[in-house]
Design brief:
The structure is a homodimer.
Chain A: H1 15-24, H2 28-38, E1 42-43, H3 44-50, H4 56-68, E2 72-77, E3 83-88, H5 90-125
Antiparallel strand pairs in A: 1-3, 2-3
Helix pairs in contact in A: 2-5
The first copy, chain A, binds a DNA duplex through α3 and α4.
DNA sequence: CAGAATCCTGCGAGATACTG
DNA sequence: CAGTATCTCGCAGGATTCTG
């Protein structure tokens, strides 16, 4: 494995920044969480249905990126029409853990954040 | 607190999505992590220095957004020139915990991800 | 069914200049 | 020092069409 400076959040090459760029891309985290929650492999159309709102193009791109990162596997059944199954790798599953934490935090705290936003906006309004 | 549907990752109003949008915005997580790591309040210029690469405009926007969310406090010393201190609120500190987890994961796994990317690209090249 | 190929648009974010 | 106020641009991501 390539060595990287640890704890250097200020380096653009910093792993944390790279991860946040990835996780920040609108659908990545959701994709990992859906697969993790399901526990099994999912087919393209099943994923698309569950991630409502995503376009085919973007889903394809998201899956390719995750496959490239080694976070999920792509398995093609050579039937006609083809069936393609996506599942998390071990590393993908390990990423799901911190993402679940984040999700937990969000569910606990976002409503409060929302309220604070409203208060803040009301104050600034006058 | 406003009630929200839990576990509905598919709803655009879902708290997890909202959080990921926020965390995904390039500098937010880094800002929280820097303040958390420091443990004390930081002044605008200190923050700017530590988050190397960020522009004044974007730092201001980031801080405003976090203040609006109730994740950090803004304290102005009415001197001339003014000194402005930023610090995490309790909720901001609680967000730092899952972010640290993510950071930990990144430091452990991103080098491996990098290697996988290179392998993947080499295969696709031919 | 699972995509590939295009075209198009909004907005996040950088650069620059000015101020109390 | 700690901001506002503009201008600009790239590109993530959406819509649409076509295919093995």
């Amino acid at each position: 494995m390539t060595a990287r400076r640890r704890g250097d959040l200020f380096d653009p090459e910093c792993p944390t920044r790279q991860l946040l760029d990835r996780v920040g891309s609108k659908w990545t985290a959701m994709c990992v969480l859906v697969l993790d929650e399901t526990g099994t492999e999912l087919r393209f159309s099943e994923l698309k249905r569950q991630m409502s709102g995503i376009s085919q193009k973007v889903l394809t791109e998201t899956l390719r990126a995750l496959e490239r990162d080694g976070l999920l596997t792509r398995r093609v059944e050579p039937t006609s029409p083809p069936r393609v199954h996506y599942g998390l790798t071990a590393r993908g599953q390990s990423l799901a853990a911190p993402l679940r934490q984040l999700r937990w935090w969000a569910e606990e705290n976002m409503p409060g954040v929302d309220d604070h936003r409203r208060l803040y906006d009301r104050k600034r309004a006058r």
